[in-house]
Amino acid sequence: QVQLAESGGGLVQAGGSLGLSCAASGSIFSINAMGWYRQAPGKQRELVATITRGGRTNYADSVKGRFTISRDNAKNTVALQMNSLKPEDTAVYYCNALSHTARAYWGQGTQVTVSS
Asked: Mind giving me the DSSP string for 68-91?
C-alpha cells in the first residue's frame, strides 16, 4: 500500500504565494502518476494539477500560469508551488497518487486559506 502525507498549508493574502509538499511511503515503486486536488466548502473535489512518472504535467484551467507541480528524482515526493493566489483558491488540498493499475491513494489534506 501507499501512504501520503501533505504539508505546507496555511493562511496567505491574495496575490501571495504558498508551497505544498507531499511525501509518499510504502509501495512507492507502484506509483505512476501523482497530483493535487482540492475541495472548497460546499463544492466537489476538483483536479488542480497532475504529473506523470515521466514528468508530463496537466493543470486545471483555473490555475494555469499560477501553479507549478513538480516531483523529485526518486519520484516519491510531489510539490505544488502556488503563486498569485486568489480567495477562490481557498480549499483543503489533497495529495493523490495512482498505481500502475490506476488505483488511487489519498493524503489526509492540508488547509489553504487566501484572504481578500
From this structure: EEEE-TTS-EEEEEE-S--GGG-E
- Per-residue pLDDT tens over the stretch 35-45: 999 999 999 99
Task: Name residue, grid cell 472548497.
Answer: 40
Distance in Å from the first CA to the final CA of the chain: 40
Q: Find the mean pLDDT for residues 77-81.
A: 96
Residue 63 CA to residue 49 CA, distance in Å, equals 8
- Using the Cα atoms of residue 96, residue 50, residue 87 and residue 24 in order, give the sign of their dihedral: positive
Closest Cα to residue 84, out of 20, 22, 21, 13? 13
What residue type is 81 in one-letter code?
Answer: Q
116 is written with which cell numbers? 481578500
Is the pLDDT reported for residue 75 higher than 80? Answer: no
